[in-house]
Amino acid sequence: MFLRYRSSKLNQHSIYLDSRLSLDHTSLTITIPIVDVFINTFKLLISPNSKQESAFVEDIISIFKNLETTDITDKDNLESIVNHVETSINRAWTKNTKRSRISKHSKQWWTEECSKSLDNYRRTRSLENWKMFKRVVKNIKRSFFNLKIQKVANKSRGPWELMN
Asked: Which three-class secondary structure state does DSSP give residue 98?
């Protein structure tokens, strides 16, 4: 039995020497605590290359352009400015995000362009629009995963990072 080293929660095991068989094997048990945990199935997100993403970036740029930093004379003023920036960024995030349900079918690469192409196909049901949708998805996926691979390669991490 392999257990987590120095873990008080996962190192509670019992060895039953009385139930030893004819070989040198014996029964082992481990007690694994199971805790009720709330798992959020929704998240706020901004789709890549969307109008909301552009609006969010513009809001952030505006926050930093309008930031008054001439009055930073002590720690309290600095904390006040930092708190103001945090509140403003949170407000911009909330304003531009949409609520999305997390599921096993969620796809990080899905964009607004994919949605528009799929809606176009659903509206017309034509074979040509289906082919266009498949082409859009293929191109979006290719560019998304090429970017992921490039990020891993540029950070000079191991190939196992590609699995995450």
From this structure: strand
Q: Give residue-wise pLDDT tens across range 19-49.
A: 776 777 777 788 777 777 777 778 888 877 7
Domain count, the chain: 3
Strand partners for 5: none
**43: nearest Cα among 124, 101, 117, 129:** 101
Shared-domain flag, residues 88 and 117: no
What is the share, in percent, of the chain residues with pLDDT greater than 70? 87
**Residue 119 lies in domain:** 109-164
Which position has the higher pLDDT, 52 or 106? 52
Cα gap 52→54, rounded to integer Å:
5
Helices (H), 8-126: 51-65, 75-96, 112-124
